[in-house]
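User: I'm preparing a small set of examples for a lab meeting where we compare how different chains pack in three dimensions. I only have the primary sequence for this one, and I'd like the structure in token form so I can line it up with the others. Please keep the answer compact; I'll paste it straight into my notes.
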Amino acid sequence: MMEKLNKDQIRNLLPHREPMLLIDELINIKKLFSATAIVNVKKNSFFVQGHFPGQPVMPGVLIVEAFGQAAAALTAAGIDKSEYENKLVFLMSVEKAKFRSPVIPDCKLELNIEAIRSHGRVWKYKGDAFVDGKKMADAQWAATIVDRK
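Assistant: Understood. Below is the structure token output for the 149-residue chain.
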């Protein structure tokens, strides 16, 4: 098992494409248990111009989306390829999401995620988001693996 996935390897696991492929790297992978996703929040990220002009902030919903992508990549990397081929991972619920400080472009957002449990095709996760060691957000969420149409 790889301990690290680069953007191309993540692209091979997830159906997301730019600009919605938010995670740049997955590191510290513990198979089907935990990982750290890296999101390079840039000054030219697609949301910067409109959220908010003159004082850009990464939208909280995109932080949650990045959590979900990181969890999907962790899960896809850990299971047999035949189990996720022609599948999609859909977010089912978000619980206890807290946004503690704004994420400003030109930073490295680190998402520490952990799989709490799985039951069939439903997985539950939790995560904490940090910039320079400062907690920016945290959440718990559930996702399911569905057949691609």
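A couple of notes for your slides: The first helix runs from residue 7 to 13. The chain has a mean pLDDT of 93.

User: Perfect, thanks.
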